[in-house]
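Sequence only, no structure available. Ideas?
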Amino acid sequence: MKTDDKLPDDATEAARHYARAYAAHYGERDLPGAVRAYAEVIASHAGTPEEGYARAQIGNIVHVVVPPQVLLAAHVELALRHGRPPAGGPRAPTAP
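Reply:
I predicted one. Tokens follow.
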């Protein structure tokens, strides 16, 4: 992914927003800043390819920085806290 200043002039706002998050992640190595920026992409650009890319990048960061046992404990806690899906099937994913 190109950084924001290297994007073509016709790049979408979602692409520019994602490029800034990507630059924080890989260019600056600012993982907390990158996670916040990716979360903003997800919240601001629902339904775009960049939303999916941002979700994947947050997952990548989580799997690198969170120890496996801590991640498992968090998954168990989430599953127990949220119980059963509502009538009509599983809930749709929401932005963080």
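The chain has one domain: 4-82.
Hope that gets you unstuck.
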